Amino acid sequence: MPTTPPCPVCKSAFAYPTGQSLMCPECGHEWNPEEVAAEEAGPVVKDANGNILQDGDDVVMAKDLAVKGAPKALKAGTKVKNIKLVNGDHNIDCRIDGFGRMALKSEFVKKV
User: Fold this and answer.
1) Domain containing 21: what range?
2) Nearest to 57 by CA among 29, 95, 93, 84
3) Domain count, the chain
4) Same domain (yes/no): 58, 97
5) CA 107/CA 111 separation, integer angstroms
6) Per DSSP, what are the bridge partners of residue 59?
7) pTM of the predicted model, to two decimals?
8) pLDDT tens digits, the chain, 112 residues: what are they?
9) What CA–CA distance (Å, rounded) separates 28 from 105?
């Protein structure tokens, strides 16, 4: 007998299938387990070429970017090591030698 996952709202173990979705008899919440699994997996972040990025990847800048408050721009080809993916508009947190901590958009980098 297949086991059903607990309700994501009230954590009840008594969920039952209703066709494509599951239903909780205690709180009345109905959900699709595939959608819940996709949300828990997190966002998929892609670089300028469409490659999927992950935490710890090394990337290079795809184009020159002006940095607000810095005397010089980030040049295309600048290597960025050990990126961290975050939620938000600028979805990469990293440290760039000579600049320090930065937040970048994934559309301006290429995976190495």
Assistant:
1) 1-41
2) 84
3) 2
4) yes
5) 11
6) 80, 111
7) 0.64
8) 468 889 989 999 999 999 889 999 999 999 998 888 777 766 789 999 999 999 999 999 999 999 888 888 899 999 999 999 998 889 999 999 888 999 999 999 999 9
9) 40
